[in-house]
């Protein structure tokens, strides 16, 4: 499903960037699953991961159930595979019409760098936790989000000097729309993960949402398209050579 709107929350210790759509649930007092120890599952056409029970969208979180974890992992593995193909396309053929379609006049090297950083971050998910259907984040219209932890170094007078992101304490959260999405076409579960990972790895923003608005942004302002999370999501989801 295509997810059309979203917003950013700024928090004292973290920044949460959201991909929005309807959601809602109640939470148990169970610790969320850390990403690093989860076995990776390759999605198989027609298998249990390819066809996700609708009930998974209604299971309360934030802890992911043993049924939800392989669904997330399958999307993660597919996102990694597709990002490798996307990096290859831009690296080997920077003038390809598909690059211009989604990023306009922006520098292909700029696009390549952001794709590479996103690919690298999803290839090594140490420090991330997965949250599923967290009612504290999956409120009205939120489809997925990332929580990015940062630290601030202060000078001798206690004034902020340097702010930087840290890997530990980062969260990828998925909400009911993630489990209702498919693994084919656009609006996929793995595309949702690419959108969110680009926020963490490449500091993308949310200038536009949805396929049509992202295409329009590329035509009107390539530089903004090159920093828009949904442009990377749809660029990868519609790769002509995959």
Automatic annotation (TrEMBL):
Domain Lysine-specific metallo-endopeptidase residue range list: 87-237
GO molecular function: metalloendopeptidase activity
Signal peptide range in chain numbering: 1-25
SMART domains for this protein: Aspzincin_M35 (SM01351)
Assigned keywords, A-Z: Signal
Name by which UniProt lists this protein: Lysine-specific metallo-endopeptidase domain-containing protein
Source species, domain of life: Bacteria
UniProt-listed SUPFAM superfamilies: Metalloproteases ('zincins'), catalytic domain
Chain segments annotated as coiled-coil in the UniProt record: none
InterPro entries referenced in this protein's UniProt entry, alphabetically: Lys_MEP, MetalloPept_cat_dom_sf
């Amino acid at each position: 499903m295509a997810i059309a709107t979203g917003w950013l929350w700024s928090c004292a210790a973290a920044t949460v960037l959201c991909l929005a759509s309807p959601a809602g649930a109640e939470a148990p007092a169970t610790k969320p699953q850390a990403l690093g120890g989860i076995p990776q599952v390759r999605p198989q056409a027609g298998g249990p991961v390819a066809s996700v029970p609708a009930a998974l969208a209604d299971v309360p979180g934030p802890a992911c159930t043993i049924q939800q974890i392989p669904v997330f992992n399958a999307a993660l593995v597919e996102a990694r595979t597709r990002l490798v193909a996307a990096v290859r396309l831009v690296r080997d053929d920077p003038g390809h019409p598909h690059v211009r379609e989604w990023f306009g006049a922006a520098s292909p090297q700029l696009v390549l760098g952001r794709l590479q950083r996103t690919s690298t971050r999803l290839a090594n998910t140490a420090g991330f936790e997965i949250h599923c259907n967290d009612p504290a984040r999956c409120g009205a219209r939120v489809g997925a989000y990332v929580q990015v932890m940062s630290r601030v170094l202060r000078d001798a007078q206690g004034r902020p000097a340097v702010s930087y992101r840290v890997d530990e304490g980062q969260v990828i959260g998925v909400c009911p729309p993630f489990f209702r999405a498919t693994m084919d076409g656009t609006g996929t579960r793995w595309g949702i993960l690419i959108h969110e990972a680009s926020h963490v790895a490449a500091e993308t923003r949310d200038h536009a949402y949805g396929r049509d608005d992202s295409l329009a942004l590329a035509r009107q302002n390539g530089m903004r398209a090159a920093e828009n999370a949904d442009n990377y999501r749809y660029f990868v989801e519609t790769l002509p050579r995959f």
